[in-house]
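Researcher: Go.
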Amino acid sequence: MADLYLKALESERKALWATCRLKGLARDTAERQRIVALDEQIAAHKNRKPA
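Model: Structure:
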């Protein structure tokens, strides 16, 4: 079964990253900070043990 939560996180990260690249946003912007938070959430989700 597809992990919809993980797909949603990765999709949001991909969209934010594309926006940041197009606009040339600096590291301290809200969008870039959200990407860092998403990376942490994705890593935590991948590292959890399946039930």
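Model: The helical segments are 4-23, 30-47.
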